[in-house]
Amino acid sequence: MIADGVENEEKWLAAGIAGLQQNAFYMHRALDSNNLRDALKYSAQMLSELRTSKLSPHKYYELYMRAFDELRKLEMFFKEEARRGCSIIDLYELVQHAGNILPRLYLLCTVGSVYIKSKEAPAKDVLKDLVEMCRGIQHPVRGLFLRSYLSQVSRDKLPDIGSEYEGDADTVVDAVEFVLQNFTEMNKLWVRMQHQGPAREKEKREKERSELRDLVGKNLHVLSQIEGVDLDMYKDTVLPRVLEQVVNCKDEIAQFYLMDCIIQVFPDEYHLQTLEILLGACPQLQPSVDIKTVLSRLMERLSNYAASSAEVLPEFLQVEAFSKLNNAIGKVIEAQVDMPIFGAVTLYSSLLTFTLHVHPDRLDYADQVLGACVKKLSSKGKLDDSKATKQIVALLSAPLEKYNDIVTALKLSNYPRVMEYLDLETNKIMATVIIQSIMKNNTHISTADKVEALFELMTGLIKDLDGAEEEVDEDDFKDEQNSVARLIQMLYNDDQEEMFQIICTVKKHIMTGGPRRLPFTVPPLVFSSLKLVRRLQGSQDQEENPFADESSTSPKKIFQLLNQTIEALLIVPAPELALRLYLQCAEAANDCDLEPVAYEFFTQAYILYEEEVSDSKAQVTALHLIIGTLQRMHVFGVENRDTLTHKATGYSAKLLKKPDQCRAVYSCAHLFWVDDQDNMKDGERVLICLKRALRIANAAQQMSNAARGNTGSVSLFVEILNKYLYFYEKGNPQITVAAIQSLIELITTEMQSDNSASDPAADAFLASTLRYLQFQKQKGGAIGEKYEAIKV
């Protein structure tokens, strides 16, 4: 059925175009032969095609545009006739003899345009005559296009200030009156379209009206372009007349579109000075009008105007713009009981943006807007409308974007109260926005109270709300927690007592995060605490200061807190991470000369290694970390160091794979020889470790030979050779030239053996080692002499 209608419409359009072109052809012929009577006759017949009622507005527009092009040519002919001496008044009378009213009025408007241009009569009289005459067409579509044509031909001939058609007095008033009258009549025709035809075609009619709205809106654009319309005239005449028409038409489509037109086409300063009049019309509009969009666009324009220049800001204060907008929004929300929460939040979001642009120093205004929003939200509970939550995020993001400082936003008492109404997912999004703002602006959050307030805002990222066990994408979760970790690293205060309070506050919050979050949030807290320990280390020594306040911050106090914090990782479980952190703390305790504390951290690390670390690769990594950390410790007495060293060497020999055993054992040699400490140079025990490593390497070869039929790579022997050379160079008397020589020969023999597997990496390593020997020999002096005895 619809397809048939479209097909018929195409046929009617084609027939209309054909009739129009045929009459246009005869009209051109008459114009070429200067036959005025025939030209008027065929032009009237051509324009009769516009009398059709069968076309939709879209198709009618196609026909109208063809007729419009032809009328342009006819107008040029009329101008030529006038130049040749033809009386334009007679012509104006002559076209009124056309048989049908629609062609007659189109011709009248065309001649009227030439009449005004000839200046034989005042422009205002001709325009008044034309606009009155056009009332003869009351069919909505035909009437709209006719008046649109009148507007088009007259827009450059209005009696405006500075215009060539300016008359003696009140010319601007006449121009404004003409446009307003045309606008009023066009709006009536446009609204009438809604009430024609059956109810079932309501949607179709609304679509058609939407296609025609610009014809009506163009009048307001013309009004805005009239030079003589100053603020007083706009305030006293133009705006009240336009708003009267808008309110009285009682049509939601027209009201929304025309209010939007008013906001878009007239200057910002006019809106500011007439704010009360404009806002006064809002509650009078139909309840179904999308007033939130209208007001939002108005506030957006005013915000941009305020941002354009600081010089205009006093104007906003003078007219009390915030107060008026705030009251208007309150009235609109009160009047429209059924307004969805999304609409109310959108209005408050726009008002807050306006406030931040116009009154950036008035935090009380911003807080007032947020408070009003909280009041509206309190009747709804948690939001489940995605559009509304999106607007809440925009609302809460506005202060961050304006002040570039979360600390300022935290001064707004209603800021956290608005966040309470967000669901978990949106709370996370908002928390991420806050963190990004802090990162981007390098915001300095320096007190425990501010940190407390900040972490309360970020609850969604820090812990599971209401025991929610939602499915979260792993990558998203990692990104969220990494951002929290970065935030923790940014919290800082020069005052050590305050910094300790910040650390305690962060610990209180992250300990509620559950096992999934702790591996992300505990490490940054530990390192932040260790930074404070380093600062305290240089500035105070509690042990030596008998007058130190017991409640004041000390390294010992921080280490106690760290011990509790790292213990929390055991519930995850994350033993490898906890072990690393214990070793970091042990090293910091070593720098503070706190032997019992350092020993306790090592003990915890060893317990974790023995009881929790079971994976062979993890054991190797953990053991090398233990050996590396222990090697750097200088705080331990002989007994404690021997205990820890003995344990480490014992663990080395118990690793699963022989190569891992070998490497761990020769690494232990460094525990008995520390360069800058004479009391930690035990050459004999170094040699014992290296010999044991050689035995393990030998055993590894034998096992390889038994299992695979070849002795495998000699890389372990080359690694041990490098250790021999290191300790030989450092002056260990137990490492002799003979031992090094025999090891080189052993490696050479092994590589030449038939059972040896080819290993380019081991060959390259050995070649590099031998080159180093040659290089040291060539140095001369004591070094050269020392290496000279080694024969390669």
TrEMBL record:
It comes from the Eukaryota. Gene3D superfamilies: Vacuolar protein sorting-associated protein 35, helical subcomplex Vps35-C. Belongs to the VPS35 family. It is found in: Cytoplasm; Endosome membrane; Golgi apparatus, trans-Golgi network membrane; Prevacuolar compartment membrane. Its main location: cytoplasm. One of its GO terms (cellular component) is late endosome. InterPro entries: Vps35, Vps35_C. Plays a role in vesicular protein sorting. This is Vacuolar protein sorting-associated protein 35. GO terms for biological process: intracellular protein transport; retrograde transport, endosome to Golgi. Keywords: Cytoplasm, Endosome, Golgi apparatus, Membrane, Protein transport, Transport.
